[in-house]
Amino acid sequence: MGELNGLADDRALLGRTSTAERVSDILRSRIAEGFFHPGTRLSEDSIGGALGISRNTLREAFRLLTHERLLVHQLNRGVFVRVLTVDDVEDIYLTRRLVQCAVVRGLGRPPYDLDGVAGAVADGYRAADAGEWKGVSTANIHFHQELVALAGSERTDELMRSVFAELRLAFHVVDDPRHLHEPYLARNRDILQALEAGRADDAERLLAAYLDDSREELADVYGRRVAGGELPVA
């Protein structure tokens, strides 16, 4: 299975205590990075063997990721990476708009620590220059994670980590990632520049319009793939 390539290398991340939480962190990252695509059945034997963990530990990790809506268990068939519906996409963006705009609105007085945000913007442009559109997608997610991190809230970071991982389930089945992600490079930069200038109100306005446009475009693209029967079934 090609998606298992390198998974054994992640065994070191488990440390001395192979907890289900650490296993779920590894699998979440692998799902987010596209190693396990939507609709993929996850083999207990293959994954457990690659990571050197017990079946019970892996099943608990699967349970945690099912709770996060990244996996789905089908009776007598096994565990699969979840395939989103268009309604899922819409709801993800509703959550993003509520949380991300509130974070920017609540920033208070400048200056803000924008190193992480600026780094994600730069990473996006570097990936685009290299024609690495998967890298652009990753940088874009990091940009939004860094925006959320400005709140300084571990609980908000944890909530949105799951939301962004779920969002990437939709990104992985888009057949033209350049068309989807390239226009937002400049919009990320515009939001950064507004924050650098201490204009949080403008940054929130730009972010709200950004999320509305992104939701509409992704829901349209995803909806057409659903209607055309092009998405895997899990």
What descriptors fit this protein?
single chain; 234 residues; mainly alpha; three-stranded antiparallel beta sheet; 10 helices; 3 strands
Tell me how many strands there are.
3
The helical percent reads 55-70%
> What does the largest sheet look like?
3 strands, antiparallel
Unreliable stretches (pLDDT < 50, length at least 5) are none
Give the helix tally.
10
| Terminal residue distance | 18 Å
Give the averaged pLDDT, no decimals: 90
- Which structural class do the helices and strands define? mainly alpha
Radius of gyration: 18 Å
Secondary-structure element pattern, one letter each: HEHHEEHHHHHHH
Strand content: under 5%
Shape: globular
Strand order of the largest sheet: 1-3-2
How is this structure best described in words?
With 234 residues, the chain is mainly alpha-helical. Helix content is 65%, strand content 4%. The chain has helices spanning 20-32, 44-51, 55-67, 86-105, 115-129, 133-149, 154-171, 177-181, 183-196, 200-227; strands at residues 41-42, 71-74, 78-81. A three-stranded antiparallel sheet has the order 1-3-2. A hairpin with a 3-residue loop joins strand 2 and strand 3. The protein is globular.
Topology:
Blueprint: H1 20-32, E1 41-42, H2 44-51, H3 55-67, E2 71-74, E3 78-81, H4 86-105, H5 115-129, H6 133-149, H7 154-171, H8 177-181, H9 183-196, H10 200-227
Antiparallel strand pairs: 1-3, 2-3
Helix pairs in contact: 1-3, 1-7, 4-7, 4-10, 5-6, 5-9, 6-7, 9-10
